[in-house]
Design goal:
Layout (H helix, E strand, L loop, with lengths): L1 H8 L3 E8 L4 H4 L6 H9 L13 E2 L1 H5 L8 E10 L5 E9 L3 E2 L14 H5 L3 E2 L29 E2 L2 E7 L8 H16 L5 E6 L6 H13 L4 E4 L8 H12 L11 H26 L7 H8 L3 H10 L1 H38 L3 H4 L4 H9 L4 H4 E2 L20 E2 L6 H33 L9 H8 L2 H6 L2 H29 L1 H6 L8 H11 L3 H4 L5 H16 L13 H12 L3 H9 L6 E8 L4 H12 L5 E4 L2 E10 L19 E6 L2 H17 L13 E5 L7 H18 L2 E3 L14 H18 L8 H6 L2 E7 L7 H9 L5 E2 L7 E8 L2 E11 H4 L10 E7 L3 H12 L7 E7 L9 H16 L3 E6 L11 H9 L1 H18 L2 H4 L42 H8 L3 H13 L53 E2 L1 H5 L9 E5 L7 E5 L14 H5 L1 H8 L4 E2 L33 H12 L5 E2 L6 H10 L40 H13 L13 H13 L5 H4 L3 H13 L8 H11 L4 H13 ...
Parallel strand pairs: 1-4, 1-8, 2-5, 8-9, 9-10, 11-12, 13-15, 13-16, 16-17, 17-18, 19-22, 19-23, 23-24, 24-25
Antiparallel strand pairs: 3-4, 6-7, 14-15, 20-21, 21-22, 26-28, 27-28, 29-30
Helix pairs in contact: 9-11, 9-12, 11-12, 12-16, 16-19, 19-23, 19-33, 36-39, 44-58, 45-48, 46-48, 49-50, 53-55
């Protein structure tokens, strides 16, 4: 048992003998049958150890060596193999052969002298110290190979492999071989040992031989045959394993695979190994300069390398490596070649770009030309060795120059030819582009804005299509269109400037009416420059609107010549010529002259101000400088946390003038502190001349707080927004924006606030541009020099004599466009303040500023320049001297330009007609001298007194007619009289009642006003007023400001101190100061902001009237009567006296002539004046109906004006109009048509019909009104500005259309806005044929309102209310009840009963505004509606009278006793039918107006 186990563990060993045909060349042919190759491949299968040549011809010494050992067999060694059943075994392989002596070519003699057949069948072999055989090279060099001996003793053969060569052997007959094999097989069979026939060299096998061999095997019993190829390593192992299976019967039978199938498997294995090896080589070898030695070492350990070398050998592996290297080198060369070829066209373009130079040169001649170029070596390199791709130049990566021998290649020649063709094509295309552009320029069909589709048929031909792509000629056409459009726009802008008179006559505002736009288009329509933009109507309209905006709001930014505006040039010239004291102080305090200064107050309680100041300082540079939009500003912070009444906490100090204030709060207490501090600060500046703190820009900021809950935070935000609305300031809420606790406000918001302060600082212009009273006293004359922007002359040359004059000094009034001159005029030197302005800047000062004379320049070769001059002179009073200066290209006698001659002639004629002076200055010699203006200066000195007297008279008249609140209106600083009119449907909301607005009123008037009339009866009446005004204007202490008591009007001779109010502030706060209005009605400057009508309560005697223009759907326009309470006339208020005695007194002062405008004296001025009377007074936003009668009267009055109009001129039609209105016309006037928001594009059966047709006894309320009010009360009671903010007109019209079609319309489903529904509801009442409050009832309501006792007044109004027609009463009750409900939500919607009455009374009552009486009674109408809203429960629901909401009534006229009239004549008039508007009640101040000015007052 023990022996058995040991035998089981031992690896079985088999001894195999390989036999076959052997012998001399005669017997076996020139080569053997492949026994040695078969043994070699089996024992050493690696390709590197396989040898094809194994010779049997040996020398005697080799035969006797230890390898052969004098035997005719070779010992191949021992091999271990794992067979198919995975059992390992060992095999000793012996080859039986026959060695031939190389001398005798006969078999060597050995110990065994038997023939090969018998010797090969030996089963026991022994040879002492015989070495294992490797290859033929081993013979004689045994020491160089591994020496392994054959096992000692006899080697017992277990089986035989019988080889048959099936290849076509040389000098061998296969049949003879098969006969030899048959004999050998018979001899082997005798040994009873297993035999396997092996067909060798099957890779070269002959099909017949293979077939005969198989036939031989089949003839023998159980003889196995295996087809092999040692060279291809196919089935070699299979032959030995098949024999082992036959030897050891216990092993499974081996499957014999046919040769071709086995070859296929072997080939696939080799191909896979090759692919892996090639992948390995490509991964490792990246450079074509790599060597096999270094790379093979890197691949030594890689299984891909090992597998391939095992199968194919090292030489094949090296061969694949070299192929890869060659491929890398080839790719490298091709890349360089491509780079060179890509650079070659660039070299051609750089060296030979001129087609004329190379047009007829071959490539060879072009090479010589290239070598001669100076920059040849920049592009090419000449190599010593060629071709370049066979030299080391391919590896010179730093040198990117092109090898010059590349030019000899075909691709280079092709590129040269392509370069020639390209130049030729470019020349042709350039010619086509030029021809195409010339076609565009010369074609009369190409006009600005014409689409390409319309133009192409006129300008395209076949050549253009052939040579130019569509994108090319589209691009050329687009650029040409841009050029001609830009040119057309420039010419059209010049055309607009040439019609400057038209634009200024139309008195346009920000949103001109369609009628005025139509006039502009009608006037300009025939101009060729207007027609040139026919295809670009939108752009043309935009240019017109832009120009209107410039006329309406002229600034340097809106100037058509911006940035070359004259004002900017003048400021630069003067600032570079002088260093003002303020600039000098800045330079002393700042190292950088470009740094501006921002003084910022930070107001906050409990450390908030200090914390934010520290955060802002952290964002500044080390020297407290802050960068905004790339510019550096010096930031000065003043945190305030205490009582602002104390000097230490004052907003303003002698060295700190604030530009803005940041108000911080994080609680109700800190918010209250902010409100109180602002109020105290404003109160402290009341009555002071430097009260700019009232207008100090404020920003209210809610800062973060760690313990603020959501509900508290929301409450603080709401309270802050309400306070910001009252303070009219910006509100910032960083807390809701997610700012971290570490920061109160982020850097972006700080920059935003500082930018706003810079803008406000510029707008406030804290360094006033108007001289103070003291400055006025230091200047003798004020001259304005006007220049036209865009004129073809340099302002530097024109102003050179002025600025270089030795007497020229910097102006002390702070203006950037003024200088002071000291010139000898007459016997004395005069100080002249010369303001150098553009025309558009000069327009705003014609009426508001004291100017002694104008020097107006114009270019003789530019029509627009003279047109602007004419437009400017139209509104200048004829008492002001004018100096016209024409700028020419050369001397007048050498002018060859007809336009220049015409312009010069016209300028001279204008100067003659207005009694002005005219000179021309050739700009080729611009260095004129100031002496040329001395005659003009003398004229100014002669007229100085009358100019100043007239100006002071105008100022005093305006001071009487304007309250302080109007002075503080934002209109005060507007550039033109109508610059701040509301101009859109979405009106700016007026602020809520502010507790900080000062309530300053005019001082009381004296009672005995007749004394003043007596003074006027003398010849020196006007001089008395002038001297009195002048003395008051020089008074430096303002009169005390007191509330206005309801007392009688009293005027005394000495009590005129109120007349200089508003002028003493050092600047003009109102826009228009002219007492004599144009003949077509009120000057547009009489229109103030909506806040002037809503915010501040007024007494009845204040002649300021809130006129909600009904067509604007809630817009409120305030009309200021600038002629109120003029103190240069008298009268007791009776109608009869106004007709007789006042006219007689007027005749006594006939020597006083009224200054007129130059337009009335010069036929060349005011050529578009007829358009001034073509439109009704009011905003261009919504024009009311033009009343034909007024228009006729106004136009007649204008035509009747003479050059000098005396005050007593009875034939003045305007005077007759006033007297007629004051006599209370009792005739039945015709009802006035009401403007509708609709365009009358459809016939409505519901809107615009009598009220009785849309109500029934069962439904006393119109369904439309009911639906609108239900919708508003359900969704809109909290809407801010309800009934005041306009709705969209198109949506309102759509709502009416839809309701007209379907009375069951659901407003909620249609998603209309609240303001749209509210506006449509108001429009319903506006379109009624008769107002909801009948005209006959309006008279009774006014009479009832005159009752002094409040309770009696309300009962009287209630009695009148009972007289209303039933239908009117029910609807009026319904509407007033609704408005009462709306007013109860005024804390949210900001619409108090007063605000609602202002918005609604014109809609409900619709008075006739064609007379002055209606205008003066507007407060009465509004107060009546306000009382109805306030006392709605009393009037309609039998509730007791409610107390007014506050200590004083919301409307002073509701409770205050009216001022007693100075007339004893009662108002007697018969009630008119409902279709006619009643005579409106007389104004309480109208009897005080002098007869000369009342005529102006009503127009």
């Amino acid at each position: 048992m023990m022996m058995a186990r040991k035998q089981d563990v031992r690896i079985p060993t088999y001894n195999i003998s390989v036999v076959g045909l052997s012998g001399t060349e005669k017997e076996k042919g020139q080569c053997g049958i492949g026994k040695s190759c078969l043994c070699n491949r089996f024992v050493r299968p690696s390709a590197d150890e396989f040898h094809l040549d194994h010779t049997s011809v040996l020398s005697t010494s080799d035969f006797g060596g230890r390898v052969v050992n004098n035997d005719h067999f070779l010992y191949w060694g021992e091999v271990s193999r794992s067979l198919e059943d995975c059992v390992e075994c060992k095999m000793h392989v012996v080859e039986q052969t026959e060695f031939i002596d190389d001398q005798t070519f006969q078999p060597h003699r050995s110990t065994a002298l038997q023939p090969y057949i018998k010797r090969a069948a030996a089963t026991k072999l022994a040879s002492a110290e015989k070495l294992m055989y490797f290859c033929t090279d081993q013979l004689g060099l045994e020491q160089d190979f591994e020496q392994k001996q054959m096992p000692d003793g006899k080697l017992l053969i277990d089986g035989f492999l019988l080889g048959i060569d099936v290849s076509r052997g040389m000098n061998r007959n296969f049949d003879d071989q098969l006969k030899f094999v048959s004999n050998l097989y018979n001899q082997l069979a005798k040994t009873k040992k297993p035999i396997v026939v092996v067909l060798t060299k099957c890779d070269e096998g002959v099909e017949r031989y293979i077939r005969d061999a198989h036939t031989f095997a089949l003839s023998k019993k159980n003889l196995q045959i295996v087809e092999t190829s040692a060279r291809s390593n196919v089935n070699v192992d299979l032959a030995f394993s098949t024999l082992v299976q036959l030897i050891d019967k216990s092993r499974g039978k081996t499957k014999i695979i046919p040769y071709f199938e086995a070859l296929k498997q072997q080939s696939q294995q080799i191909a896979t190994a090759k692919d892996k090896y090639e992948w390995l080589v490509s991964r490792i070898v990246k450079n074509h300069n790599e060597s096999w030695l270094s790379v093979s070492r890197k691949m030594q350990a890689s299984p891909e390398y090992q597998d391939y070398v095992y199968l194919e050998g090292t030489q094949k592996a090296k061969k694949l490596f070299l192929q890869h290297i060659h491929r890398l080198k080839h790719e490298h060369i091709e890349r360089r070649r491509k780079l060179y070829l890509a650079a070659l066209p660039l070299a051609f373009e750089a060296l030979i770009p001129n087609l004329d130079e190379i047009d007829h040169l071959s490539c060879i001649k072009a090479k010589k030309l290239l070598e001669a170029k100076p920059e040849f070596l920049k592009w090419f390199v000449v190599l010593e060795e060629t071709p370049w791709d066979a030299t080391s130049h391919i590896d010179n990566m730093e040198n990117e120059r092109i090898p010059f021998d590349l030019m000899d290649t075909v691709p280079a020649e092709q590129l040269y030819e392509a370069h020639l063709e390209k130049l030729r094509n470019e020349r042709k295309r350039a010619e086509m582009r030029r021809a195409f552009k010339e076609n565009l320029e010369t074609s009369p069909f190409i006009t600005p804005g014409k689409p390409w589709e319309e133009a192409r048929s006129f300008i395209m031909n076949e050549d253009f299509y052939q040579w130019l792509e569509e994108s090319v000629y589209m691009d050329i056409y687009g650029k040409h269109q841009k050029q001609i459009i830009d040119k057309a726009k420039e010419e059209f802008q010049e055309l607009l400037l040439e019609y400057s008179e038209l634009f200024y006559e139309l008195e346009l505002d920000a949103k001109p009416s369609k009628e005025k736009m139509g006039v502009i288009q009608d006037v300009l329509g025939e101009e060729q420059r207007f027609k040139a933009l026919q295809k670009l109507q939108a752009e043309r309209d935009a240019l017109i609107l832009k120009h209107i905006h410039f006329v309406y709001h002229p600034t340097k930014e809106t100037c058509p010549s911006c940035p070359a505006c004259v004002d900017a040039k003048i400021e630069h010239l003067i600032s570079s010529r002088f260093i003002r004291p303020s600039d000098r102080n800045q330079k002393n305090s700042l190292s950088d002259p470009n740094i501006d200064r921002i003084n910022l107050v930070i107001l906050g309680k409990d450390g908030l101000a200090r914390e934010l100041a520290n955060e802002i300082r952290a964002l500044c540079t080390n020297d407290d400088k802050y960068v905004i939009d790339g510019k550096m500003y010096e930031l000065s912070l003043r945190p305030i946390e205490g009582n602002v009444r104390l000097p230490v906490n004052s907003f303003q100090t002698p060295t700190f003038q604030p530009h803005g204030c940041l108000c911080l709060y994080n609680s109700k207490e800190s918010l209250s502190y902010v409100v109180e501090s602002i109020e105290k600060s404003r109160e402290s500046t009341l009555g002071r001349r430097d009260n700019h703190l009232v207008h100090l820009p404020l920003t209210l900021i809610l800062v973060n707080k760690r313990d603020t809950s959501g509900e508290t935070l929301h409450s603080l935000i709401q309270q802050g927004q309400q306070i910001a609305s009252k303070l009219q300031c910006v509100f910032l809420d960083p807390a809701s924006a997610g700012i971290g606790y570490g920061r109160n406000i982020n850097e972006k918001q700080i920059s935003q606030v500082l930018k706003g302060l810079l803008d406000s600082k510029r707008n406030l212009n804290l360094v006033s541009s108007t001289a103070s009273i003291k400055d006025l006293a230091d200047v003798d004359l004020r001259i304005v020099m006007c220049l036209m922007c865009g004129d073809p002359f340099s302002a530097d040359d024109i102003l050179f004599p002025v600025l270089q004059s030795q007497t020229c000094k910097s102006s002390h009034c702070g203006s950037n466009n003024s200088v002071l001159l000291e010139l000898p005029i007459g016997l004395h030197k005069k100080r002249i303040e010369l303001s150098i302005l553009s025309y558009h800047s000069s327009f705003s000062i014609r009426k508001s500023r004291l100017v002694h004379g104008y020097i107006v320049f114009y270019s003789a070769k530019r029509k627009a320049s003279l047109a602007m001059l004419r437009a400017f002179l139209c509104e200048v009073q004829d008492i002001i001297p004018i100096q016209l200066v024409a700028l020419t290209d050369g001397a007048i006698d050498v002018l060859d330009n007809d336009l220049s001659r015409e312009q010069l002639t016209e300028g001279e004629e204008i100067a003659q007609e207005i009694d002005g002076r005219f000179i021309s200055i050739p700009c080729s010699q611009p260095q004129h001298k100031l002496e040329i203006f001395h005659p003009f200066f003398k004229d100014v000195v002669d007229k100085k007194n009358i100019i100043e007297a007239t100006h002071m008279y105008d100022n005093a008249a305006e001071a009487c007619s304007t309250t302080e609140e109007v002075f503080n209106s934002p209109r005060a600083g507007s550039p033109l009289c109508n610059s701040n009119l509301q101009d859109s449907e979405e009106d700016i909301e007026p602020p809520s009642y502010s507790m900080f607005r000062e309530d300053t009123s005019l001082p009381p008037l004296s009672k005995d006003h007749s004394k003043l009339s007596m003074e006027l009866e003398g010849n020196d009446g006007l001089s008395f007023i002038m001297s009195n005004f002048e003395s008051k204007l020089n008074n430096k202490v303002p009169p005390p400001v007191k509330p206005k008591p309801p007392v009688h009007f009293e005027i005394t001779k000495g009590d005129l101190s109120y007349l200089d109010q508003g002028h003493r502030d050092g600047q003009r706060k109102s826009v228009s100061s002219s007492t004599w209005l144009p003949p077509d009605g009120f000057d547009p400057s009489d229109y103030a902001e909506p806040m002037d009508a809503v915010v501040k309560p007024r007494n009845e005697e204040e002649n300021i009237y809130s006129v909600p223009h009904d067509s604007t759907q809630g817009k409120i326009i305030t009309i200021r009567n600038i002629n109120k309470a003029q103190s240069n006339g008298s009268g007791n208020g009776s109608d009869s006296e106004m007709d007789t005695s006042s006219l007689e007194r007027g005749r006594k002062v006939s020597i006083v002539s009224k200054p007129v405008l130059y337009r009335t004296r010069c036929s060349r001025l005011g050529r578009f004046a007829s358009y001034r009377t073509s439109f009704s007074v009011g905003s261009d936003d919504e024009l009311g109906p033009i009343r034909k009668k007024e228009e006729d009267q106004a136009s007649q009055g204008y035509k009747g004006d003479s050059a000098v109009i005396p005050y007593e001129a009875d034939e003045d039609p305007r005077r007759r109009n006033i007297l007629r209105s004051l006599r209370r016309n009792t005739k039945k006037p015709k009802p006035k048509p009401r403007p509708s928001i609709t365009k009358a594009t459809w016939e409505s059966n519901y809107f615009g019909v009598p009220l009785t047709t849309v109500v029934t006894p069962e439904k006393p309320i119109p369904v439309f009104i009911e639906r609108c009010i239900e919708y508003i009360e359900a969704t809109g009671l909290s809407t801010e500005g309800i009934y005041r903010v306009s709705g969209n007109k198109s949506e309102m019209e759509s709502l009416q259309r839809q309701f007209d079609q379907d009375h069951n319309l659901d407003l909620a489903e249609k998603d209309f806005t609240v303001n749209t529904v509210a506006g449509a509801m108001k429009s319903f009442f506006s379109e009624l044929p008769d107002p909801l409050v009948p005209y006959s009832m309006q008279i009774d309501l006014v009479e009832a309102h005159k009752i002094n006792d409040r309770e009696q007044k309300l009962h009287a109004l209630k009695e009148v209310l009972k007289k209303f027609p039933k239908e009117n009463h029910e609807v009026f009750k319904y509407v007033i009840s609704h408005l009462n409900k709306v007013s109860h939500n005024n804390k949210v919607n900001l619409m108090t009963s007063e605000n609602l009455s202002i918005c609604f009374w014109p809609t409900l009552m619709r008075p006739d505004f064609s007379t002055m009486d209606a205008l003066t009674a507007t407060r009465t109408y509004q107060t009546i509606i306000e009382l109805f809203i306030q006392q709605c429960p009393f009037f309609f629901h039998n509730r007791p009278i409610s107390e007014p909401p506050g200590a004083t009534p919301s409307s002073p006229s509701a409770l205050a006793s009216p001022v007693p009239f100075l007339t004893s004549t009662p108002v007697t008039s018969q009630p008119s039918p409902p279709q006619s508007p009643p005579p409106t009640p007389q104004s309480p101040v109208q009897p005080l107006l002098p007869s000369q000015l009342q005529a102006e007052h009503t127009l």
